[in-house]
Amino acid sequence: MSFFTISAFMICFSIVAGESCTEITENLHYSCMGRNLSSIPPSIPSSVQTLDFSFNVIKHLQKTVFPVLSFLRVLDLSRCHIKHIKNDAFYNVKNLTTLILTGNPVTYFGPGCLNFLHNLQRLVLVDVGLVSLPLQMNNLTRLRELRVGTNNLQSVSLPPFMSSFKDFSLLDLHANNISTIKTDHTVVLRKIGRNMTLILSRNPLLYIEPGAFKDVYLRQLDIRSAFVSFAAQKVGLKALYGLNVKKILFGKFRGDFKFEYSDANILDGLCSIFFQEVYYYISDRPDELISIFPCMINATIVVVKNGVIGDMEYVFFHELKELYLISNHIAILPGKQLSHLHTLEKLVITYNSELFSAATFIDMPKLQYVDLSSNRITLKRCCSTLLSGTPQIRYLNLSLNAEIDLDVGAFDGLDSLEILDFHHTKVVDMGCLSVLSNLKYLRYLDVSYSSITYTNIYCFYGLSSLNVLKMAGNNFQGDVVRHLFNNLTVLEHLDLSYCHVVEVHSSSFKNLQRLRHLNLRGNNLMAIDFLTHSNLKQLTSFYVDKNSITSIPLDVLQKLPTNLSEFDLSSNPIDCSCSQTDFILWIIKNQNILKQPENIFCQSFSLSSDLRAADFDIVSCVHKKRLIIVLSVCFVILVVVLSVLAYRFQFYLQYCCILLRGYRSPGQQECSYDAFVIFSSYDEAWVMNELMENLENGVPPINLCLHMRDFQAGKSIASNIIDEGIMGSRKVIVVVSQHFIDSAWCRFEFELAQSRFMMERNANIIIIILEDVEERKTKKVFGLHKHLKKNTYLKWSRDPLSNMRFWIRLRRAIISTKQ
Ligand SMILES: *[C@@H]1O[C@H](CO)[C@@H](O)[C@H](O)[C@H]1NC(C)=O
Ligand SMILES: *[C@@H]1O[C@H](CO)[C@@H](O)[C@H](O)[C@H]1NC(C)=O
Ligand SMILES: *[C@@H]1O[C@H](CO)[C@@H](O)[C@H](O)[C@H]1NC(C)=O
Ligand SMILES: *[C@@H]1O[C@H](CO)[C@@H](O)[C@H](O)[C@H]1NC(C)=O
Ligand SMILES: *[C@@H]1O[C@H](CO)[C@@H](O)[C@H](O)[C@H]1NC(C)=O
Ligand SMILES: *[C@@H]1O[C@H](CO)[C@@H](O)[C@H](O)[C@H]1NC(C)=O
Ligand SMILES: *[C@@H]1O[C@H](CO)[C@@H](O)[C@H](O)[C@H]1NC(C)=O
Ligand SMILES: *[C@@H]1O[C@H](CO)[C@@H](O)[C@H](O)[C@H]1NC(C)=O
Ligand SMILES: *[C@@H]1O[C@H](CO)[C@@H](O)[C@H](O)[C@H]1NC(C)=O
């Protein structure tokens, strides 16, 4: 009740102003709570309007403690160890409207300490050790509230001048030491006006002089736990006769001393008090059932809490509009007692254990609001059997009960229902019948955890006004969920959490264009693709936490409803791999709309690691990607280079193959020619006219392999050279000339020949020097120079004699083959 709540100050710490105070609203509102200060720090601007200076140390409160703060309205000096309050202490803060001095051990109030506080409206002097109200409050003519609870006051009497305080409306005297109230104590109360609240709870009242409150008009009287004993309460209530009070609260707080109930008529005194609203806090288990209601028959609001009523007595209430029976161990629903009550609008019977009911509430034309929740009721027939002749019913709460069986036509006659709550109550037959079809005004339906299995797509047929549908913790049979919501076109809030939903079809929500809140928490969904086709343009919050979603494709994320501001994706087994970088990047970028983004974890196979999706190392994925690209490029380059090389050296490669082939079949190869002639085409004339003429036509004839004559057509030159020439001939004749040296083909052929015979360790290369070549030039041809130095060669000359010798030697060289 205290005007300030400390927590309010704690919530919004923003900037620390100056030394140690906290600025709550710039220039207006500061908190210096608990700073061990003894005066107001200079950092507080003179414009301050609200200052919390509680829990500091000001032993002597005097004028100099405060600088001039002429705008200050609210000052809290709770628990500042104040002992003395000097005259004119508040001179510099004279425009205060609220002054709080709670919890100071004040031993001295200067007679003029409240001088100048002409605007003061609330004065809080709770727990300051007051023993009387001698305070000089004459000038506080605007005072509205005086809170002097938890002191040692012994009387309710107010100083006479207070009767002129026109706005005075609250006197809180709770927890003082008031034991008697006499007629002359209430003189001022009687004069002070009709709008006052008097709180006398927790006083040790023993005696009230009868008639002390006669003709006193109060707005509210709180006498909970205000009497020392049961007897004192009974007598005290009687002594209050003639009191007019709008709202009276009596009974006791839980845990107070136990009353001894000796007779059933303890509340008789109430009959001579005029009141409209009565709040009776029994907070006890009387041994005997007490008669509660007879003196309440003229009340408009009756609230009875925390007692044992058993079976309610029959009372004919004249004007009762609201009846609350809360936590009263009522055993039987008071249908009979309340039926035909034409004034009752609101009925609340809650928190009664094991309430038995076969009751019906009949003919209550004004009844609008019925709350029978938390009673563990089992209703075998509902609901038009429970309520009939109640055409105005708008609100029906049957939640937290045991079991309710719906009839066919369950809501006939209850057509005005707007709010219906069955949550945590087993509801039988809701899932297969379309019993709600006449509730065209129903706005709110809660059937969460009601053990319903929906089998009928027409369950919600006719609910054309339904705004909120909560159906968490139920089941669907087959494909029902796909059609169930088809006609709920004005639905804004749908809770389908914990419903074992595995898949949502995109047409399930196709007509829910007004849907703003969709809760699918705790299902088994793996995808939310349905969102993209569902036309849920208005959706602002969407919960799919605690499902089995591993990833969401980028195109789905891009098509999320534009106004989505709350998206709960936490506690899903998010797949954090490099293939999901788009999704994870999206998570990182959209932390503002994600609810509990810190709980979006990567799916992990080891229990120990709980990596947050937002902490996943995307950079390393980028590196990996780059590495793969670089490697692929390298590979391509390598292949190209190898191909080029292979092309460039295809003859050698082929030759190598052939050699390998040769090795593989080392057997003697059949040679078709005696010699293969390597020569430049410029020397063709000599070869044809001389060489061929002499060797092939001689005796024995020597079979030469000449490329222009013997190479097979259609075969590549290289293979011809190798297959026919070098491999197919026993010897190789090399015709060295200037042209030979210059010809790349010849050099190549010679190299091949050399490598063949080197392998076979045969000096089967016969060199004919057709014309002299410079030594320097012979070095150009690989191996030729060396060959000429190491081996004898034949030299052609035009001289016929040496010519003759030449042919003989050549022929011998070709024939004399040692294989
Ligand atoms: C509060 O201030 C006084 C001096 O003003 C000092 O003696 C005392 O130790 C302080 N207490 C705390 C808790 O800082
Ligand atoms: C303080 O109250 C006086 C009237 O008592 C008024 O004249 C003056 O303007 C007020 N000062 C401020 C700063 O509101
Ligand atoms: C009331 O206020 C006036 C000044 O406004 C002062 O002179 C007088 O002493 C005050 N009376 C009391 C009882 O404080
Ligand atoms: C309460 O008042 C009675 C006299 O009415 C007195 O004897 C008793 O000591 C007071 N109790 C306290 C706690 O001051
Ligand atoms: C009665 O007092 C309350 C505050 O306690 C106030 O809001 C209300 O306006 C007052 N009514 C009348 C008629 O004075
Ligand atoms: C209820 O009001 C009627 C008159 O309206 C009065 O006669 C009767 O005594 C009242 N009963 C109680 C218990 O207040
Ligand atoms: C129904 O009663 C329960 C328990 O008292 C309460 O929690 C719930 O909010 C009520 N339902 C509505 C719609 O007011
Ligand atoms: C939806 O409304 C149409 C027209 O009133 C009706 O034909 C259809 O059966 C309804 N569907 C469901 C599932 O309620
Ligand atoms: C999104 O919200 C704004 C304002 O809250 C509203 O004007 C707009 O129509 C909404 N967009 C959609 C698609 O509902």
From TrEMBL:
Record's bilayer topology term: Single-pass type I membrane protein
Gene3D superfamilies (UniProt xref): Ribonuclease Inhibitor, Toll/interleukin-1 receptor homology (TIR) domain
Ranges in a coiled coil: none
Classification via PROSITE patterns: LRR, TIR
GO biological-process terms attached to the record: defense response to Gram-negative bacterium; detection of lipopolysaccharide; inflammatory response; innate immune response; MyD88-dependent toll-like receptor signaling pathway; toll-like receptor 4 signaling pathway
Superkingdom classification of source: Eukaryota
One GO molecular-function entry: transmembrane signaling receptor activity
InterPro entries with a match to the protein in the record: Leu-rich_rpt, Leu-rich_rpt_typical-subtyp, LRR_dom_sf, TIR_dom, Toll-like_receptor, Toll_tir_struct_dom_sf
Compartmental location: Cell membrane; Cell projection, Ruffle; Early endosome
GO cellular component, one term: plasma membrane
Leader sequence segment: 1-18
TIR domain span: 671-814
Transmembrane residue ranges: 627-647
Keywords recorded for this protein, A-Z: Cell membrane, Cell projection, Endosome, Glycoprotein, Immunity, Inflammatory response, Innate immunity, Leucine-rich repeat, Membrane, Receptor, Repeat, Signal, Transmembrane, Transmembrane helix, Ubl conjugation
The family this protein is said to belong to: Belongs to the Toll-like receptor family.
Protein known as: Toll-like receptor 4
Species of provenance: Culter alburnus
